[in-house]
Design a protein that fits this description.
Blueprint (H helix, E strand, L loop, with lengths): L2 H16 L4 H26 L3 E3 L5 E3 H12 L1
Antiparallel strand pairs: 1-2
Helix pairs in contact: 1-2
Family: Belongs to the UPF0291 family.
InterPro entries: DUF896
Subcellular location: Cytoplasm
Length: about 80
Amino acid sequence: MTEKEIKRINELYHKSKAEGLTPEEKAEQAKLRGDYIMAIRNNLKRTLDNVSILEPDGSVTELKKVAEAKERHTH
């Protein structure tokens, strides 16, 4: 998500509060918000993929490997 896109989200938000949006602007706002949420989710996933847990027995569990194993069992 670029700074330009974030700026546009904010512009549309302020315009919606001040005077309302056209149907085209509402559609643009919904798309941009969806893209923003997806970017946040992807960033969080990348962060969590790099987290390791130190278990009480001293072993280390990588969250990425736990998630991959869980995904294999659910499919």
